[in-house]
Write a structure and sequence with these properties.
This protein starts with 8 loop residues before the first helix and ends in a 9-residue tail after the last helix. Strands 1-2 form a two-stranded antiparallel sheet. Helix 7 (165-180) packs across helix 13 (315-349). It has one domain: Amino acid/polyamine transporter I, CATH 1.20.1740. The chain has helices at 9-18, 27-38, 41-54, 58-82, 88-96, 99-134, 165-180, 182-207, 232-244, 260-290, 297-300, 304-311, 315-349, 368-384, 390-415, 428-445, 448-473, and strands spanning 150-152, 158-160. With 482 residues, the protein is mainly alpha-helical.
């Protein structure tokens, strides 16, 4: 039967104890990791995308995406405290909904983590290549973009790249940090988080006093939007969702967390709450000072926050915010690769991925082999492909995983009501359905072509791999314990 392989929670916990990772992260580390994963390309770049889809109504889009993430964070906090092991949504689905669903969730999470890491690396390389070019150290055209990417030259002609060297190098550097150790990576991320917080705080302090209420009219130039359209407030919310993605990466660190029953909920909810406040203040200030009508200057900018500050007469501060993006975006790449390796590590421990993926380095206590494989793959994708549409494709995988986790937690409330829950999501029969409906609406709002279509193709490939490779190698197929 397809749905007969469910891995008991007790067996999952026992497997983590037998072949687990070193517990070395506290609540502050997790909160910093969460903020590091959340604040990045979304707020620094996608503000312009949201303005083009929804105009000033993107304020509502930030709220909608934030509410969906808040509901999901409460769900994640409950299951992560119950099952403090690596694997995130994949592990939770395995325990409640069975192996097939767990595989599809794990497969979808590759879109969230690996594709997102490559996309951020490409975005970061644009800033870095621009800096090198401005200082007379520009690389040849063939080394500044991938073969599938195009570049508009000074004379207006369009040329194709060859290999995005800078994007490849930053991905490999981050991979090296992750191999050396999680605690070192956490300290590195915490430092970059402070850079981002200072930059956003400076933006708010300068732009907020200059807000003009007239810039919010008309508030909804493209309306609320409809499912599958990819436009309006809902379409912008679906894209802006990328700005919040990353908080769930905290749960992938469960197995390396001290006192996870207490610290995982703090890290999840704390990082999301801090980022949501920043996002609402930043978006309000950006709209109020520069306007945000579709097709306007803000919606067309590649560096919207820097554009706002320069438009207000603060060019040096605008440059500084751009520099903050250059300095801090690597923390997002780090957390995306980190989350991906922990999920593949757990799938390997379950027999669904090659065994070498669950090998732990004897000195650094990190899953070094899967980290290297993942990092090299991310680096190659970043070197070869453009950033276009990757954010929405990443969102599709994330929303599918969030949907399944919410369903799983509600099922677990019914099937195992007496199991200890160090953190209980309040009002579960409101929070749970709210998360399910919210994820479904945002998923549909991504638009059919190309996002949902590509996701369905990826899912079909996943089913072929599962039945052709993973299902027969699963430890549960042989009555073993991972």
């Amino acid at each position: 039967m397809l749905f007969d392989r469910i891995k008991p929670l007790d067996q999952i916990l026992a497997a983590a104890e037998k072949k687990g990772l070193k517990r070395q992260l506290g609540a502050f580390d997790l909160t910093m990791l969460g903020i590091g994963a959340i604040i990045g390309t979304g707020i620094f770049v996608l503000t312009a995308v949201a303005a083009n889809k929804a105009g000033p109504g993107m304020m509502y889009s930030f709220v909608i995406a934030g509410v969906v993430c808040a509901l999901t964070a409460l769900i994640y906090a409950e299951i992560a405290a119950m099952v403090p092991v690596a694997g995130s949504a994949y592990t939770y689905s395995y325990a409640v909904l069975g192996e097939l669903i767990a595989w599809m969730v794990g497969w979808a999470l590759i879109l969230e983590y690996a594709i997102a890491a490559s996309a951020v690396a490409v975005g970061w390389s644009g800033y870095a290549n621009g800096f090198l070019r401005d200082h007379g150290m520009g690389l040849p055209l063939a080394l500044t973009a991938g073969p599938k990417d195009t570049i508009t030259l000074a004379d207006g002609t369009i040329a194709s790249g060859g290999f995005n060297l800078i994007a490849c190098m930053i991905a490999l550097l981050i991979t090296g940090l992750l191999v050396l150790g999680t605690s070192k990576s956490a300290k590195f991320t915490a430092a970059l988080v402070l850079v981002k917080i200072v930059a956003l705080t400076a933006f708010i302090a300068v732009a907020f006093p200059a807000v003009n209420g007239a810039n919010f009219e008309p508030m909804l130039p493209n309306g609320w939007g409809t499912p599958l359209s990819g436009t309006g407030v809902l379409g912008a919310a679906a894209s802006i969702f990328f700005a919040y993605v990353g908080f769930d990466a905290v749960s992938t660190a469960s197995e390396e967390t001290q006192n996870p029953n207490r610290n995982i909920p703090i890290g999840l909810i704390g990082s999301l709450a801090i980022c949501t406040v920043f996002y609402l203040l930043v978006s309000y200030a950006a709209i109020g000072t520069a306007g945000a009508q579709p097709g306007g200057a803000l919606s067309q900018s590649k560096e919207p926050l820097a554009f706002v500050l320069k438009n207000l007469g603060w060019p040096k501060l605008g440059d500084a915010v751009g520099w903050a993006a250059i300095i801090a975006l690597p923390s997002v790449i780090l957390m995306m690769i980190y989350g991906q390796t922990r999920i593949l590590f757990t799938m390997s421990r379950d027999g669904l991925m090659p065994k070498m993926f669950s090998d732990v380095h004897p000195r650094f206590f990190t899953p070094h082999k899967v980290t290297i494989v993942t990092g090299v793959a991310v680096a190659l994708f970043a070197a070869m492909f453009p950033v276009d549409a990757l954010a929405d494709i990443s969102n599709a995988g994330t929303l599918f995983a969030f949907f399944m986790v919410a369903v799983g937690v509600m099922v677990l409330r019914v099937t195992q009501p007496n199991r200890p829950r160090p953190f209980r999501s309040p009002l579960i029969w409101i929070v749970g359905p709210g998360a399910v409906v919210g994820c479904a609406v945002l998923f549909m709002s991504l638009g059919w072509n190309p996002t949902i279509k590509y996701f369905l193709i990826w899912a079909a490939i996943g089913l072929v791999v599962y039945f052709g490779y993973a299902r027969s190698r699963s430890v549960l197929a042989h009555g073993e314990r991972a």
